[in-house]
Amino acid sequence: MKARPNSGKTYINPCRLRSIHPPQYHMARILDGAHDIHLENTTFIATKNYVVHNAAFSTSPLKELEPRISAGAMHNSLERCDAPKCHPETRVAVQEELFSWIVEGDNDPEPKKITWVTGPAGTGKTAIMGTLADRCHKGGLLAGCFFFSSTSTSSNRRTSTALIPTLAYQLSQHDESLKGVIANALEGDPIIFKKDLRAQMETLVLKPLREVQQWIDFSSWPKVIIIDGLDECEAEQFHYVKAVPGRKPAEQRTNQDAQEEILKVLEEARSDPAFPFRILVASRPERVFRLFFDPAQRTVPFASVVLDEKYNPDTDIALFLEAKFKEIRRKYRLAASWPPQNAIPTLVKNASGQFVYASTVVRFISEGRNGNPQVLLDIALRLKPTGTATVNPFAHLDALYSQILCSSPDPDLVVSWLWFMKIWAGQDDRDDKPPPAHFVNFMLETFEGEADHLLGDVHSLVKVPPLEDLQAPYDFYHKTLFDFLDDIYRSGPFYLVYTLRCNFFWEKYLAVIRDERWRVKDDNFRRGSAHNDLLSRYFHFHPFSSMPPLSRGSANFDVPAAGVEWWYHMARIFDGAHDVHLEHTTFITAKNYVVHHAAFSTSPLKELETRISAGAMHNSLERCDAPKCHPETRVAVQEELFSWIVEGDNDPEPKRITWVTGPAGTGKTAIMGTLADRCHKGGLLAACFFFSSTSTSSDRRTSTALIPTLAYQLSQHDESLKGAMLNALEGDPIIFKKNMRAQMETLVLKPLREVQERIEPSSWPKVIIIDGLDECEAEQFHHVKAVPDRKPAEPRTKQDAQEEILKVLEEAQSNPAFPFRILVASRPERIFRLFFDPEQRNMPFASVVLDEKYKPNADITLFLEAKFKEIRRKYKLTTSWPPKTAIPTLVKNASGQFVYASTVVRFLSEARNGNPHVLLNIALKLKATDTGVNPFAHLDALYTQILRSSPDPKLVVKWLWFTNIWILNTGKPAAAHLVNFILETFEGEADHLLGDVHSLVKVPPLEDLQAPYAFYHKSLFDFLDDISRSGPFYLGYRLRSDFVCEKYMAVVRDKCFKLGEADQSLLSHYFHFRLFPPAPFYMTGPSMSDFDLPAANVEWWVRATAFHRNSQSLDYAFNVPMVPVHAAMQAMAKYHPAGL
User: Fold this and answer.
1) Are 241 and 250 in contact (CB under 8 A)?
2) Phi, psi dihedrals of residue 1074, rounded to the nearest 5°
3) Is residue 1068 predicted with pLDDT exceeding 80?
4) Distances (CA, A) of 665 to 86, 620, 677, 693
5) Nearest-CA neighbor of 563 among 510, 508, 503?
6) 219 or 424, which is more confident?
7) Angle value at C-alpha 107, between 102 and 109, nearest 5 degrees
8) Nearest 5°: CA angle at 811, between 805 and 814?
9) According to CATH, where is 3.40.50.300 located in the chain?
10) pLDDT per residue over 813-846, tens digit each?
11) Among 112-126, 567-581, 885-899, which is the least confidently predicted range?
């Protein structure tokens, strides 16, 4: 039975099944006894009113191509912005050989149209292909490319589905006539994407090329198509592959089938006279490729490049080690004589041509917990392999792996942990991202802190996220670790047979079922819904059928009756069904359900508008109360920067980029904001972007909107430039899926080149201002867990994102068509110090350090004098106030930090007691500790005094953390009244508690029910999060989490039915998705009673966790492969007497 489609969705109304049965029974009975079911994009709805509005509007045929491509598979995609590239001056020989074949291959005695690049794991194939693609793109030689990746979060980079559409799209960008012919082909065969690769190649590539070849000179065209990682291409299943009564099952399609199909299609294409391109394919030397490229099997010749000793990998590895050891010297301030002269040659010899050995040695030395590079280097040099390189080319790598494992307190147990992570990654193929490390710890730890104890010395094998990063997973650096562990001859005592790996895996799973999942009153809730959702999702799709036979009688595998009940309910969802295929399916119970389907064509410039961050502009509504320089302050630094903007070309050595830096509180954002306003008024501001890690707009916290926002602002200055950008957007509608370098080229540099001849440069604005670049966070584009036989992707760091921006800006300012200066402001973090280090850069940069040179004390004095004058007026004080010594003392205490001065002013003017005389005396008498070590010592003393003025200082710190965690995790602040509702234990507690800390927290008036709490400066949490600074007010992460969880449970228990619908939605969104994933909540002692939960509230809690899934208040939602609702808790839920 195949359900009839209705605008892409099928709806079955199960209302008639309702009687006295609970909801989970109805859901179980929907498909009771059904078979041969194939449902796509299906929604099951029980509802009173159901309305569907459909509107379809015709679009250009080429628009149909865009959603079929894999933008992430292109060499310059946003997803591949931190993909591996060859280290400078390495892999030169192989790159030159391949480049020469691309450019001059037709001159060979026997020209070959396809070259296969191969080599085992760790030989740098993807780095070579990526570097070569960039080089060919710059030289106009790259016709198209596709980078497969088994670790990509984009499924269309893991299969062949998007290969031909992606190549066709890239080819269409080279010529307008070819683009038109491809559009005609799409219009003539609208179901082409449902045909096989051969048909797609013919319709979308070969036929269009034949039509245009008569009027295109292909000698001027690009030369090569690059396809990398073809061995990572996975097979899609188009048939049922298990037996059905009376029917022969289809044979399962393998990865090798998909890979061979691609090879054959490429071979046929290169033999077509209309196909002018060479094809470069890279893969591991797996059997399907060895057979296909075997000269004895092929009538048409192919070239092959094997990454072996011919290409001198030893020289490349030596260059790599020299560069990395230089970094280690800087990091640990070692003498120039380190490492010893014989160290690098010895390591190069041990590497046996494998880069993976060299990179593992570097991590072993630089990331060891003991942290003594000399000791660790000596250990690495003295390691003796058990075998010989002639028998095992990985002998030295194996010895290194063994040494690292031996450094763990329990090597055998750490191997079991590694296999647990590997099995999870290998089986959980339906999930779109790996579980966080904290969740793995929750599954495996037998005591708190065991993960750090066990894994602390194996960081060179496993990427362990920092404790405060509660979203990141564990990540393996290279698949050769499991090649080693899975080979008894190589790993020896560390070898764990398959049965023991699985026993450990299932023992831990059943321990969770037995000991954790079913204690509703404490453990189940303190662990949090995300843990249980993830468990139910994973173990539902990978049940006991995949478990090998276990020894009888093991107590570790006993399952209580509750577990059986849970499995029974899961089984009843499709009781008696078989051959069920569900894609993107949702089960819904709702009062009203309305669906609107509409597709409208929009102006490309409108598309740009949706991609910008309006809040990041200097004059945005979001920045209406952003800090600005007080009148007559920061005059010197502003004038220096303004003079550089206006007259910088007259300098003896003109510099196009200036970096403004200084520690927290030195007024960088205030200076940049004031300067942006001044430049805007004078017609000098070309564009700006103000990053903010505390912004409620996520697009101000990442780089995604940076280039579109700059381009949008530039388009406002000139109509011809706006038109050029419009053409650029029409020509490349997926530009927003490409990386920043490509976006800068398409949206800024190319349009500027087109209009530069008809625009007078002197009439243009002068400067682009980018502030708070250190607050730019990273986005993740890959799975960072291990995939069978694949190297996992490394999590992208904020430093990666920041460096990418710096490099794009550097390239832009060196382009002749780019007429603007660039002003960048950030804290002096390591990534910026290295980038702007004069010894590291060929291009000159200017830097402005906000230190004593710019007389911050004079500015702070002016600021205090003006503010004290306002306080005198407000409180009708005499002109003798403040005492003459007061302002000089406060200026000295400020240590050049404006944040101290502004906090003192708020402390005097906004305190509840409101006696400026008394409060000023308190501020002046505060004694700071460690002034020589801590430049914020006086600020810390002031923060401490303000917190102590609260009736309950420790409780107010918890409130502050609760509010801050909410903002950081949900991406938007909650209304103050909602925070009060959650936290207050008696009416008026918020005012009682926060009344004396108004100088730290902006508290909205009682009548404003929409305004949130806001913090004046991020240095408050720098203080609270540092135990050496905040002392008794320090609250560890566990205690913060305990407090948040306790308050959530109190809301569920006592207040859940007093909330309005909007607040319920916000609560469920926050607590389900943002609170529980960050940490397992370990509660001890008498406070455990705070987490008891009456059974009557179980259903409300289940519903609340699913509430955010749909604005129509879903009861239950199953969105394959995500299962957002606790299957277990759903099964045990009782109806709440009050209803939802």
Assistant:
1) yes
2) -110, -35
3) no
4) 40, 23, 21, 15
5) 510
6) 219
7) 115
8) 140
9) 71-237+254-311, 604-783+791-854
10) 999 999 999 999 999 999 999 999 887 777 778 9
11) 567-581
789: left (phi > 0), else alpha (psi -120 to 50), else beta? left
- Residue 785 is encoded by which pair of tokens? 């867990």
**For residues 1073 and 492, which has the higher predicted lDDT (pLDDT)?**
492
Which pLDDT does position 76 carry in this prediction?
93
Burial class (CB in 10 A: 0-12, 13-18, 19+), 1079: buried
Residue entry with tokens 């966790």: 1105
Distance from first CA to last CA of the chain, Å, rounded?
A: 36
| pLDDT above 50: residue 315 | yes
pLDDT digit string, tens, across residues 185-198 = 998 888 888 888 99
**Quick check: bond before 339 cis, omega within 30?**
yes
Contact 1033, 1024 (CB under 8 A): yes
pLDDT, tens digit, for every residue of 342-375? 999 999 999 888 888 998 999 999 887 767 899 9
Please state, in angstroms and rounded to a whole number, the distance separating the CA atoms of residues 1068 and 160: 39
- Indicate the burial class of 830 (C-beta count within 10 angstroms; 0-12, 13-18, 19 or more): exposed
CB 1108 within 8 A of CB 1072: yes
Token pair listed for 653:
């050595």
Beta strands per DSSP E along 730-881: 767-771, 821-826, 846-849
3 state SS of 646: helix
- Token pair belonging to 619: 């004059």
Q: Which fold has domain 604-783+791-854?
A: Rossmann fold (3.40.50)
pLDDT at site 170: 97
Calculate the alpha carbon distances from 759 to 645, 656, 753, 878 in Å.
Answer: 20, 20, 10, 60
Beta bridge partners of 1092: none
Distance CA 566, CA 132 (A): 54
Q: In a 10 Å sphere around its CB, with 0-12 CB exposed, 13-18 middle and 19+ buried, how is residue 674 labelled? A: buried
Site of tokens 């007389």: 855
Taking a C-beta distance cutoff of 8 angstroms, is the pair 26, 14 a contact?
yes
Contact (CB, 8 A) for 781 and 79: yes
Task: Copy the structure tokens of residue 1052.
Answer: 């569920």
Cα Rg of the chain (Å, integer): 32
Is the pLDDT assigned to residue 1045 strictly greater than 70?
yes
Structure token pair of residue 1082: 């370990």
Between CA 471 and CA 969 the distance in angstroms is: 11
User: Rounded to an integer, what distance in angstroms lies between the CA atom of residue 1102 and that of residue 1068?
Assistant: 10
Please list, in sequence order, all residues whose beta carbon lies within 8 angstroms of the beta carbon of residue 259, skipping any fewer than 6 positions away: 230, 231, 233, 283, 288, 289
Asked if residue 779 lies in contact with residue 796, where contact means CB atoms within 8 angstroms, the answer is yes
Other CB atoms within 10 Å distance of the CB of residue 716? 11
Instruction: Report the SS3 class of residue 126.
Output: helix
DSSP state of 534: H
71-237+254-311 to CATH, choices 3.30.390.10, 3.10.20.90, 3.40.50.300, 3.90.1150.10: 3.40.50.300
Residues 842-895: pLDDT tens digits?
777 899 998 877 778 888 898 898 889 888 878 888 889 999 999 999 999 998
What integer pLDDT is reported at residue 702 of this predicted model?
A: 92
Amino acid found at 1135: Y
Dig out the tokens for 852 from the structure: 């004593």
- Pairing of the two strands 43-55 and 278-283: unpaired
Give helix 604-611 / helix 706-715 axis angle, nearest 10°. 130
Q: How many CB atoms lie within 10 A of CB 94?
A: 25
Tokens of 717: 């200055």
Cα distances (Å, whole numbers) of residue 965 to 700, 958, 972, 973: 18, 10, 10, 10
CA distance 350 to 353: 8
DSSP secondary structure, 715-743, as one string: HTT-HHHHHHHHHHHHH-TTGGGB-HHHH
Q: What is the pLDDT, as a whole number, of residue 55? A: 45
Per-residue pLDDT, 34: 52
